Each structure stands twice: as C-alpha cells, then as structure tokens.
C-alpha cells in the first residue's frame, strides 16, 4: 500500500523537487499538487501533506490538515514558540495526527546541528554564519537559530564561561544577532542556495563545521523520510534528527 501525498506549495522550487521525488518513488502516490490559488480541499483523502509554502499561509494549511486527519511534514519557515504552541493546541483535538516541522531537511544540515551541539562544550568561542539566496524571507534562518540554540544549551549545561569579546565600538549588527549567547550572522547573496558554517575556537585551535546545499533536491530524501514515518509519530515533532535515530 502506497502513501498518498499532497504537496502544498507544489509550484515553488522546493515544492517541484518534492513532487518529482514523490512521483519517482514506488512508495508514494501523488494525491494532489496544491498551488497558491488552489482550494485546500484538494488534499482531502491524502495520508500526508507536505508544506513548503510561506509563513503567512502555513498556519491555515496546518489547521486544515489537522482538522481533516492528514499528517503533515512542514519545511516552511517562520515558526516560533507561539506557533508551536498553537499547533499543539490543535493536535490536542486530533491526537492521532502527526506533524513534523523541520528547519532543514538536508541530511547534512541535520548532522551539522547535531555535531555542533556535541562540539560546543570543548570550545571557548562559537559563532554561526548562514548563507542563503536573496529571496529568502526570514533572517537568520530557522536552521541557524536551531543550531545556535543547541550550542547555547550545550555551553550552559557544561558551565562554560561567557565567550571572550573585547569589542567596545561596532556598527549596529556587525557582531550578528545573539541567540542565547551565540552570535548568528545572515548572508543573503545571489548564487547561494542554503549553506551554514559553525565556527568554534579555543586556545591555538579552531574547528569549522560547514554544510552546503547546492540545489533544492538536497531536501527531498529528508522530506521523504518524514513522510515515510510521520504516521507512527503522533503529536508535534520539531526537527528531523529524531527520525534519523540521532
């Protein structure tokens, strides 16, 4: 029995790649390709909806899916604690539904976040730099924020002293945005797709962990992993790492 998949945002670049990935696999059936002007009722009867739309549209899409018993795999950006709490409240009324929200579906990006959290306790300094195409709507990226949060928590758990930084005069924003105690820098540049560097430093040594996605197809294996498993994971899951046994 194949899994019936509806793709919301199907005409966007990532959406098109997901549609192609679903169609190329014998495990899945493309139930619906839903664009901006299509009715959400097109997803009725799907097993799983994949959402790569916009921050303005995703919450209405999620509410509809949960109310209609459709599991969700979401790569749309713009989630914060308030939005997560809203999704949880909807799921309380339909506890059998599973929702996965991941800031990044590239396996290399997920591993970067995991490795960064492991490395954080060994270094005095840590900073995150993310690079994306200029059409990205949010900054910093959800991936960079989640990476920095994991580093900050690991530093806190290890009881590491505050990072050394003697800067007294700087242009606004030149030291990045702080996530916990970790500076995060966002680059928006033509020619980029999605990239992240995590830089660690301590006495006489440094470590750089870098991840590069060169095309939107890099997200497809992770998305399909989520689609494959989401029915067995009711409730809200944040991040793909638990689906990879990490």
TrEMBL record:
Keywords: Amino-acid biosynthesis, Cytoplasm, Diaminopimelate biosynthesis, Lysine biosynthesis, NAD, NADP, Oxidoreductase
Catalytic activity: (S)-2,3,4,5-tetrahydrodipicolinate + NAD(+) + H2O = (2S,4S)-4-hydroxy-2,3,4,5-tetrahydrodipicolinate + NADH + H(+); (S)-2,3,4,5-tetrahydrodipicolinate + NADP(+) + H2O = (2S,4S)-4-hydroxy-2,3,4,5-tetrahydrodipicolinate + NADPH + H(+)
Enzyme class: oxidoreductase
E.C. number: 1.17.1.8
InterPro entries, per the entry: DapB_C, DapB_N, DapB_N_CS, DHDPR_bac, NAD(P)-bd_dom_sf
Domain of life from the UniProt record: Bacteria
Residues where NADP(+) binds: 36
Domain Dihydrodipicolinate reductase C-terminal: 109-244
Residues annotated to bind NAD(+): 9-14, 75-77, 102-105
One record GO biological process: lysine biosynthetic process via diaminopimelate
Active site: 132, 136
PANTHER family: 4-HYDROXY-TETRAHYDRODIPICOLINATE REDUCTASE 1, CHLOROPLASTIC-RELATED (PTHR20836:SF0), DIHYDRODIPICOLINATE REDUCTASE (PTHR20836)
Family membership noted in the UniProt record: Belongs to the DapB family.
Subunit structure as annotated in this protein's UniProt entry: Homotetramer.
Function description: Catalyzes the conversion of 4-hydroxy-tetrahydrodipicolinate (HTPA) to tetrahydrodipicolinate.
Protein name, entry field: 4-hydroxy-tetrahydrodipicolinate reductase
């Amino acid at each position: 029995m194949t899994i019936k998949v509806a793709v919301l945002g199907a005409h966007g670049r990532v959406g098109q790649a997901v549609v192609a990935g679903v169609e190329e696999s014998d495990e899945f059936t493309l139930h619906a390709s839903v664009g901006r002007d299509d009715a959400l009722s097109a997803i009725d009867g799907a097993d799983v909806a994949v959402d790569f739309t916009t921050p303005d549209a995703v919450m209405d899409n999620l509410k509809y899916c949960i109310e209609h018993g459709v599991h969700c795999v979401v790569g749309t950006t713009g989630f914060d604690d308030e939005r997560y709490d809203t999704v949880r409240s909807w799921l309380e009324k339909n506890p059998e539904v599973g929702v996965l929200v991941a800031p990044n579906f590239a396996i290399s990006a997920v591993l970067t976040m995991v490795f960064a959290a492991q490395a954080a306790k060994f270094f005095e300094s840590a900073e995150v730099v993310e690079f994306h195409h200029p059409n990205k709507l949010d900054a910093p990226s959800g991936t960079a924020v989640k990476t920095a949060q994991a580093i900050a928590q690991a530093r806190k758990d290890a009881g590491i002293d505050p990072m050394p930084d003697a800067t007294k005069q700087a242009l606004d924003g030149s030291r990045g945005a702080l996530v916990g105690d970790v500076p995060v820098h966002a680059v928006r540049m033509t020619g980029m797709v999605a990239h992240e560097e995590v830089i660690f430093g301590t006495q006489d040594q440094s470590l750089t962990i870098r991840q590069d996605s060169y095309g939107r197809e890099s997200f497809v294996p992770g998305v399909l992993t989520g689609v494959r498993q989401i029915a067995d994971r009711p409730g809200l899951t944040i991040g793909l790492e638990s689906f990879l046994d990490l």
